[in-house]
Specification:
There is one protein chain. The chain is an alpha+beta fold and 348 residues long. It folds into 3 domains: 67 residues, Uridine Diphospho-n-acetylenolpyruvylglucosamine Reductase, domain 2 (2-Layer Sandwich), CATH 3.30.43; 121 residues, Uridine Diphospho-n-acetylenolpyruvylglucosamine Reductase, domain 3 (2-Layer Sandwich); 106 residues, Alpha-Beta Complex (Uridine Diphospho-n-acetylenolpyruvylglucosamine Reductase, domain 1), CATH 3.90.78.10. It contains 7 helices and 20 strands. The site of uridine-diphosphate-2(N-acetylglucosaminyl) butyric acid has 17 residues, from β13 and α6.
């Protein structure tokens, strides 16, 4: 099938914020065999962007160049035991193409009797975007189950396979993430190391309340369902209220700064990791709520009523409206707490 190419493409439906933006050219990649041709097209355009489900970006302008939308589909389970993913026979290697919707993929792994990704249910976005920002939720990060990433170099079309250890994974970060939305790699598919044995990960406070230790251990599907319930309670559904999930990362500060904040603000939740005693992570949602932003609405740009870390588009907000609101939030959090919030969302 030839590449699908649209000139002057409307991107409103292709970004979770629902921001009206236009691309000079949109190429939709549905067949892996067309990837080299798509890369040629990207190389000849003045400014370009790789687009998955558009769940983690904010358009602040039109794209005067080519946008490549990755719509590759397909998923498969490899043999029961695969060298390199662990010592026991319960380990299973699974692969999904980059354009698969993440949540559908998670449900499919559960239907195969595989556990590992249940805490990451209902995260918006595509499989290909998952390693880019090393998605995480409810006590589990993608990196814990990532086996490898298959990609093509955008510079010369060279195929590459990165083992998880080569992906540069950090908190919402990887070698594939770029501040502009165009990294050096076109991700084709992602492989995961999952297990037929369930090892429930219930230490996140919301899950502890859902599954008291006295109850029988929940199945991976039970956990996924609980995660969906918690997410639906706290986070707006992008199909109903346009948003890109957490707008900022949770900031990491010096331990001494965290101690000072704890002394001055006794209710502040502080996450400390014994492996990194000189630093502590703070919940950005709490800082933003304390500055009075929760539920604020400015025209069609707003801060969600249930979760202060989520900025929302009530209808016709422009990217610049959301960006201006975000800048004001950053300024007030610095003024009150001396903490700089870095966006998790990529500004395009
Ligand atoms: N909080 C408030 N007010 C708010 C929101 C949160 O005080 O309006 C407090 C909560 O009470 C809690 C703390 O902040 O004590 C943390 O809140 P929550 O459990 O909702 O998690 P989060 O740190 O805000 C992170 C991820 C989410 C992920 C959840 C659950 C980041 C940037 N965000 O949010 O990921 O779903 O944990 O694990 O790390 C995303 O990345 O888009 C995303 C939604």
């Amino acid at each position: 099938m030839p590449l699908a190419i649209t000139e002057s493409a409307d991107l409103t439906a292709l970004n979770a914020f629902g921001i009206a933006a236009c691309a000079r050219r949109l190429i939709t990649l549905s067949e892996e065999s067309d990837a080299p041709e798509a890369i040629d097209q990207l190389q000849s355009a003045p400014a370009s962007l790789l687009l998955g489900a558009g769940s983690n970006l904010l358009f602040t302008r039109d794209i005067d160049g080519t946008v490549l939308k990755v719509s590759l589909t397909g998923r498969k389970v490899f043999g029961a035991t695969t060298a390199g993913i662990g010592p026991d026979d319960a380990n299973v290697l699974v692969e999904a193409a980059a354009g698969e919707p993440w949540h559908d993929f998670v449900l499919w792994t559960l239907a195969q009797g595989l556990s590992g990704l249940e805490n990451l249910a209902l995260i918006p976005g595509s499989v290909g975007a998952a390693p880019v920002q090393n998605i995480g939720a409810y006590g589990v990060e993608l990196g814990e189950h990532l086996h490898s990433v298959r990609a093509l170099s955008l510079e010369d079309g060279r195929p590459c396979e990165f083992a998880a250890s080569e992906c540069g994974l950090g908190y919402r970060d990887s070698r594939f993430r770029s501040a502009t939305g165009l990294s050096r790699w076109l991700i084709l598919s992602v492989r995961f190391a999952l297990s037929r044995n369930s090892r429930p990960r219930l230490h996140y406070p919301d899950l502890q309340s859902a599954f008291p230790p006295t109850a029988p251990p929940p199945s991976p599907l039970d956990i996924a369902q609980a995660v969906c319930t918690i997410r639906r309670r706290k986070l707006p559904d992008p199909a109903e209220l346009r948003n890109a999930g957490s707008f900022f990362r949770n900031p990491v500060v010096d331990a001494t700064h965290a101690d000072r904040l704890s002394a001055n603000h006794p209710g502040i939740p502080v996450y400390r990791d014994p492996a990194a005693p000189h630093h502590a992570k703070l919940p950005a949602g709490w800082l933003i709520e304390q500055c009075g932003w929760k539920g604020t609405r400015r025209g069609d740009a707003g801060v969600h009523t249930q979760h202060a870390l989520v900025l929302v588009n009530y209808g016709r907000a422009r990217g610049s409206d959301i960006a201006a609101l975000a800048a004001d939030i950053q300024a007030s959090v610095i003024e009150r707490f001396g903490v700089r919030l870095e966006p998790e969302v990529v500004f395009v």
